[in-house]
């Protein structure tokens, strides 16, 4: 009798709680973000296995929490699978590929002279009242880190799986992924050098306002144009950039078509077109970026 009264109380309480979205209790619940409200011990329908709100993980059944749990489990499952990591590599790769096109177009403004280039650099540093560049940096860091971590984990996973299937086709695939890892690591080394060179501006005077200032519409701004000219006037730096851009182009020639493949956009029919598109894009990036140090070494701007 007492048991059935208790059971009816629980069923009533949980029905109310499902309707309202909050547990029915005489005490006020403690509500945590993205988690179930915590009730005093003994009060929660979670503790009654017969309650419809009871779940094996001790969490209240609620559409929002269920959706969050399902999403977390889905992401965990995806990340642990090799196709999930491939998708992360492809999507972050797509972001980086698009960034390169934008960065190249911006950099080519250097050929238009100091005023347009410094105006462009000033705009980049001051968009959204200066917050834009930091938002971009944060997104770039996340994308780059996810791209590298997913690639490393994927390579490890593939290596372990390959031991069981030593077959000519997989050996071929491993050769191309080894080339990708090598070019990828060189690009990473270049990227760190590039940040120290033009962003942090260490070991040179590019941050010196006396030597690197420019008057733009009556305002004193950083002379990014002169920094680029001086940076590439030193031959070893220019040669390093040209080598890095060559490896970047090789990375892109394979990487761009891999993006289409992972996203399921590559078929037998479109394979050769996508192949040409990847090589064409890699060439466009290579010629565009390499033209800057080469032109400066040949005397442009000096
Ligand atoms: C010849 C080739 C390149 C030139 C001349 C060049 C030039 C520059 C310059 C001048 C800046 C600083 C702008 C400023 O702060 O005023 C910059 C920033 C940057 N570059 Fe490049 N770049 C080149 C290639 C690349 C490549 C290949 C990548 C990527 C792999 C890259 C990634 C970046 C990034 C992410 C920033 C932003 C740094 C920040 O947060 O301020 N650059 N680049």
Provide structural commentary:
There is one protein chain. The protein has 302 residues and is an all-alpha fold. The chain folds into 2 domains: 39-80, no CATH class; 82-297, 3 helical TM bundles of succinate and fumarate reductases (Up-down Bundle). Helices cover 68% and strands 3% of the residues. It has helices spanning 2-20, 63-80, 82-107, 114-126, 131-162, 168-199, 224-233, 235-262, 271-297; strands at 213-216, 219-222. Strands 1-2 form a two-stranded antiparallel sheet. A hairpin with a 2-residue loop joins strand 1 (213-216) and strand 2. It starts with a helix and ends in a 5-residue tail after the last helix. The model is unreliable at 6-40 (pLDDT under 50). The site of protoporphyrin IX containing FE has 17 residues, from helix 3, helix 5, helix 6, helix 7 and helix 8.
Query: Could you tell me which ligands this complex binds, including any ions or cofactors?
Result: protoporphyrin IX containing FE
- The count of helical stretches stands at 9
Please report the first level of CATH classification, the CATH class of the largest domain.
Mainly Alpha
Distance between the termini: 97 Å
Main features:
mainly alpha; 9 helices; 3 helical TM bundles of succinate and fumarate reductases; 302 residues
């Amino acid at each position: 009798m007492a048991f059935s009264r208790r059971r009816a109380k629980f069923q009533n309480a949980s029905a109310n709680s499902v309707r309202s979205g909050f547990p029915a209790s005489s005490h006020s619940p403690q509500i945590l973000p993205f988690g179930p409200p915590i009730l005093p011990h003994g009060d929660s329908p979670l503790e009654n296995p017969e309650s419809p709100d009871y779940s094996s993980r001790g969490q209240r059944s609620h559409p929002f929490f269920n959706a969050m749990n399902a999403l977390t489990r889905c992401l965990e499952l995806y990340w642990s699978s090799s196709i999930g990591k491939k998708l992360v590599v492809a999507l972050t790769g797509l972001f980086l590929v698009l960034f390169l096109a934008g960065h190249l177009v911006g950099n080519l403004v250097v050929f238009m002279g100091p005023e347009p280039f410094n105006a462009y650099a000033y705009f980049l540093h001051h968009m959204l009242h200066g917050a834009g560049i930091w938002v971009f940096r944060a997104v770039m860091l996340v994308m780059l880190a996810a791209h590298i971590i997913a690639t490393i984990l994927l390579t490890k996973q593939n290596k372990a799986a390959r031991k069981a299937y030593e077959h000519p086709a997989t050996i071929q695939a491993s050769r191309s992924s080894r080339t990708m890892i090598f070019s990828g690591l060189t690009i990473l080394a270049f990227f760190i050098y590039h940040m120290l060179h033009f962003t942090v501006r260490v070991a040179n005077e590019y941050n010196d306002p006396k030597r690197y200032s420019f008057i733009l519409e009556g305002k004193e701004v950083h002379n990014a144009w002169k920094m680029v000219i001086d940076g590439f006037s030193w031959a070893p730096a220019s040669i390093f950039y040209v080598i890095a851009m060559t490896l970047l182009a090789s990375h892109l020639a394979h990487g761009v078509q891999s993006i289409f493949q992972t996203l399921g956009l590559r078929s037998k029919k479109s394979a050769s077109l996508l192949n040409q598109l990847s090589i064409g894009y890699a060439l466009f990036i290579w010629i565009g970026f390499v033209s800057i140090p080469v032109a400066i070494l040949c005397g442009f701007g000096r």
